[in-house]
Each structure stands twice: as C-alpha cells, then as structure tokens.
TrEMBL record, chains A, B:
<dbReference type="InterPro" id="IPR041694">
    <property type="entry name" value="ADH_N_2"/>
</dbReference>
<dbReference type="Pfam" id="PF00107">
    <property type="entry name" value="ADH_zinc_N"/>
</dbReference>
<dbReference type="InterPro" id="IPR011032">
    <property type="entry name" value="GroES-like_sf"/>
</dbReference>
<dbReference type="InterPro" id="IPR045010">
    <property type="entry name" value="MDR_fam"/>
</dbReference>
<protein>
    <submittedName>
        <fullName>NADP-dependent oxidoreductase</fullName>
        <ecNumber>1.-.-.-</ecNumber>
    </submittedName>
</protein>
<dbReference type="InterPro" id="IPR036291">
    <property type="entry name" value="NAD(P)-bd_dom_sf"/>
</dbReference>
<feature type="domain" description="Enoyl reductase (ER)">
    <location>
        <begin position="18"/>
        <end position="342"/>
    </location>
</feature>
<dbReference type="InterPro" id="IPR020843">
    <property type="entry name" value="ER"/>
</dbReference>
<keyword id="KW-0560">Oxidoreductase</keyword>
<dbReference type="InterPro" id="IPR013149">
    <property type="entry name" value="ADH-like_C"/>
</dbReference>
<dbReference type="GO" id="GO:0016491">
    <property type="term" value="F:oxidoreductase activity"/>
</dbReference>
<dbReference type="Pfam" id="PF16884">
    <property type="entry name" value="ADH_N_2"/>
</dbReference>
Length: 345, 345
C-alpha cells in the first residue's frame, strides 16, 4: 500500500453543465485517523445527482464544496486503520469519504457493511441512500393505495426503480419515464413498470403529456418528483384530486445553477399554484438525511427482498477514480444505465 | 311579500378584473320549493374571493357559472316555506342561495342558524366558511407550534383574521400583511397581530421581503397562503426548513383568468421548486368543502370564543342586492375592511 492517495477536487464552479476542467485529480499523503476515526481504503464510490448542487455557490442541502475542496459523496471500502470502537481493520464500511481513494471519517458517520450478506456496491444504491430515499418518500409522503397510478421519472435509476417496484408490489399502476428505448425496455422488463415512456421521443411537455394521459388514463395520484423540467410540466395538469408529490430532486434543472434565467419553464408559478389549489395537491420537499432513524426499518424490509430477487437492481460501474468526473457528467446527461458507481479497487 | 324576486346573473365572462357590465340585475318569479326543499328570504349574502374563479371558463373548484346563470354563493335568511323536516317558516338558515333575494335549496344543503346565539351575519364569516377555512387549515395543515412564526396576508379578512388570532393564542409570532395603514392598524389593534406590513408601501416583492425579514427575524414557519402574487414571492425565500404552506387561495391572480400570460410572476417554477426541495417545505392545497365533517368541531371551539369576545370580528356590510357587483369588485381590489357582506333586508 502506497502512502499516497488520490482524490478529485472541485477546480472551478461549473457554469451550467460541469466539464472535465471543473475537476482536478490530485495526489497527497494518506491521512491519519484521529480519535474515534477510521481510515478507509475506498473500493466503490457513489455518484449521485445531488452532488451537482454542492458544486454551486449559495444555498443547497448543506454547506457547499469550496473551490479546491475534495468532491463530497458516499463510498464503501475496507477499514485499514481504526481508532474507533466497533471498527476493525478488515471491516467494510460505508461513509462520507468523498471522491478519494482513501479517507478518514468519524466512526459515527460510518456504517458497517457485511460483504457476505450482499455485494458491497448495494450499500451505495438499492440498499443505500437512493433506495432508502425511494422507500421512505413513497411510504411517508406518497401514501400509496392499491389501484392508484404512480408516475416516476429516471425510472431505471436507483430511486425510480425502487419506487416503481414498491408501488407495483402494492397494487398501483406504475408509469415510468426514462431516456431512450433501451432504458424504457429495462424499466418494463426488469423493474416491472406497467409502461415506460421515452421522454426523448417527446420534444416538449405537451407531447409528453399526451402520451402520459394515455398511459395513465385515470389520472395520476402520485408523482414522485426527482427531475423537474419537461416532465413536471407534463404531469401537473394530469394530477388527480388529492394527489401527492414527494419532491426529492430536480435533476433537469441542476445545471441551471442559481435557477435564474437559465432555468426555463413554460409553466408559470401562478398556473402551478392554481393546480395545487384546485386539485388539493400535497407537495412535500424532503431530504433523506433528516430521516436516518428510519434506515434500519428500511434495511429490514428491503435487504431480504434484494436477496430473494424480489427487488431488482442494475448498476453502471465506471473504472478508476480518474474516470469519475466523466461518469458524473454522464449521470447528469442520463448516459448511465442504473445506479452509477465508480470502482477504485 | 312580493311574488317577484331579484337576482344577479353573470352577464359576461370577465376579461381580467370584472366590471359592472359583467353582472345583470334581473327580476323573476319567486321559486316554489320542491320536495325536501325550503324557500328562503335572504337577509345577508356573503361575497368571497373564490366566486371570481367560478366566473371563468375552465377548471375551478366546481362547475363554473354559465353565462346568464345566477351568481353562486352562500347566504343566510329566513325560511318562508318548507317542504323539509327540520325546517319551519321563521327559522333562519344558511345555504347556497346565490346572489338572490329569494331562493330554494334542498334542506340537506342548508344549516339552521340560531339568531339568539350570535348575529346571523356571523354565519357568513367568523362562524362560517371563511372562519372554518382558517381554523381547519391552520390546525390540520399548518401544525402550529408555540414559538414559531406565521405569516398571513389579507390579515383583516375573515380568513386571515381567524388564522392570526388562533395562531397568536397558540403562542406563535404573527405577522400580517394588509393593504393600507388603516387595515394594518386594525390587524394589530383588533386582531392582535404582532406586526402588520402594508403591501402597498412596497412596490415589489424584493422590498416587501426586506420588511418581512425584519418582521420575522427567525424566518417563517407557516405561510398561510390566500393571495399569491407579490406576497408569495416575498415569502418563499424566507421560509424555514420544514415550513408549511396551507394553500387556500390566490386572490392576487384570480383576475388573471386562465393564468396564462396575464399572470406575471418574477419567480420561476424552478426557483420555487428548488426552495420547496431544499427547505423541505410542505405545500398543500385544499378546498374547505371537502371537510364539512369537521364543521361541528369548529363551531364548538370557536362559537364560545366569539361570544366571549376572545375572537374578534369585523364586517363590511354593503346595502342592497343592486350593490353586490360593486362590492364584489371592491373585494377583489381590497376596498373592503373585514368580512364583505351584502344586506338585503
């Protein structure tokens, strides 16, 4: 093991869509764990849309990444040194290790992962934050009932595919939206969506809305919102009375930065507000990090279903930390198929 | 008693703000009650902002008023003929009698009003639909907690004044918004708001936001939304994490009709959506008519407080059915002070 580690820093704040120049691969000494901390050799890094928000200035979920700082994110790897009770070298741990080959973190921020019960990559997707996001928000905010209709975009992503599979198992009609015919086939064949619409086949919200109206002939009871943009505009007029919109992301607008003039929406705020009023909709934004107390219940419910194959997963694994920026750019463009992961070792 | 009655019909659909020409005062025979129906001589008519929506074509709360049809609304009057059990001539009743001197309605749609326990006008405001709207939405959606801050516009109206008084009694800091110094003084002196801002003193949302930030230095936990427009734009960035927005009206935009190009909002949908996401807001539209099952609980709570003077009310009473259109136009412009009523007898 080298005493040097690699990490990727934010070289500059993106102006719209990030480019490779906004990232820098740097080398430095492997850090030393302090009291209560563990040192982890990262095996797999997670790439998630929320990271785009952290690259901007201004208010986001949490304090943003400073220029020159290491890109943040969750990863899973092997503990190679520990000053914390409960972690031994050789253990595997998930934690906020960032885009780095090695990292230290306080043990309280880490979660032990059992490599014998499931592949450790699942701690980044179906059994990690994205799967938990879908599980929590569908149940707590979506309040699904058999016979209702659910729409979710990014249907083959780790959130959308969890939402779709859970909703289907509860007796809902599930309508996915994805980019491209291949992803739509995957959504139906692997994740069991009743139908999946290719948003790339629809140049505007009006066209997509027409297709949605056919796919959801009784209207939409739950719109699980993780994309915004054209999909939101297509969906809103189709929402049924007392519909629910858990709002956990808006990837279509992330590259619009401060969401000023760059973020176009044909729908006006008054029109959106009017629909919420007239159709008695409930819109609720949430950040899953406020709800970790429910994570054990999530794992207890979903881990056996992953093991049995009742819940399916698809991963898209890039190779090498140096390829993380390109994979992240691809994630924002929808190039990935399934949960985007970067393999480091 | 004459055998003729007067009623006001929708002469034409308004293009923007209604004008007097959009209404017609007509005369016709007093209707005869059918089985299960009562005939009422209306004493007081209620004018409410929601009626503006019923004048437009297209989706609104309920089926809209046809051109030539009688303007809809709740009224209170004396039963002069009854084919229904439970109602006798001489009883007073509230019901959907419309803008008319006389009307029949099925007894199931009517509610007996006791003129000895409170002035019958209160059945249109503080002890009627507006008061119930404020009571229900504050408790059920607003979930107020002592020490929090609430903002409500139209603070001297029957909804806003109920919301403010209830919130104050629960230990919240209450910030009202109203049009003009006189209403602001009324909001503070009569309805007990901690502070009331005059939206007319602020030409744009930015200016109003600055004043709101001073009036609500800890941020806003509950924004009781009944106006939209400049106030909404001022409030949204000041919402605290986990803030709640009961959405029961948007009077600022009602005259924009279909809410297309005519309804201007400087804030974009992406910016609004982002704030809901990042601050984990809950926005919930509701129509009080879905919740009449809770009306007895409301009356049991509030009627004694009105009788004791713990809940204050202010009424603005126009005289004569012929003046209802002008009073309604004034309501949309904010000319009224307190609950707008029209006295017919």
């Amino acid at each position: 093991m080298s005493d040097q580690m690699q990490h990727i820093t934010l070289a500059s704040r993106p102006n719209g869509a990030p480019t490779l120049d906004d990232f820098a691969l740097e080398t430095g000494p492997v850090p030393t764990p302090g009291p209560g901390e563990v040192l982890v050799r990262v095996h797999y890094m997670s790439l998630d849309p929320y990271m785009r928000g952290r690259m901007d200035e201004g208010k986001s979920y949490t304090a943003n990444i400073p220029v020159g700082g290491t890109m943040e994110g969750g990863s899973v790897g092997e503990v190679i040194a520990s000053n914390a009770d409960g972690f031994q070298p050789g253990d595997f741990a998930f934690g906020p290790f960032g885009w780095a080959t090695h990292a230290v973190a306080h043990a309280k921020m880490c979660r032990k992962v059992d490599p014998d019960s499931a592949p450790i990559t699942t701690s980044l997707g179906v059994l990690g934050m994205p799967g938990f996001t879908g599980w929590y928000a569908l149940h707590e905010i979506g309040q699904p009932k058999a016979g209702e209709t659910l729409v979710v975009a990014a249907a083959t992503g780790p959130v959308g595919s969890m939402v779709g599979q859970l909703a289907k198992s509860l007796g809902l009609r599930t309508v996915g939206i994805a980019g491209g015919a291949d992803k739509c086939a995957l959504a139906v064949d692997t994740f069991g969506f009743d139908v999946c619409l290719d948003h790339r086949a629809h140049p505007d919200a009006r066209s997509l809305r027409k297709a949605l109206a056919e796919a959801a002939p009784d209207g939409i009871d739950i719109y699980f919102e993780n994309v915004g943009g054209k999909v939101l505009e297509a969906v809103i007029p189709l929402m049924k009375e007392h519909g629910r919109i858990p709002l956990c992301g808006m990837i279509a607008w992330y590259n619009a930065g401060g969401l000023g003039a760059g973020a176009e929406a044909a729908m006006s705020v008054p029109a959106l507000w009017r629909t919420i009023l007239v159709s008695h909709l409930r819109v609720q934004g949430f950040i899953i990090s406020n709800h970790w107390d429910r994570f054990p219940a999530f794992l207890a419910d979903i881990a056996p279903k992953v093991a049995s194959g009742d819940i399916k997963l698809v991963e898209d694994i890039a190779d090498g930390i140096e390829n993380a920026p390109d994979a992240f750019i691809g994630l924002l463009e929808g190039r990935n198929v399934g949960k985007q992961i970067v393999k480091l070792i």
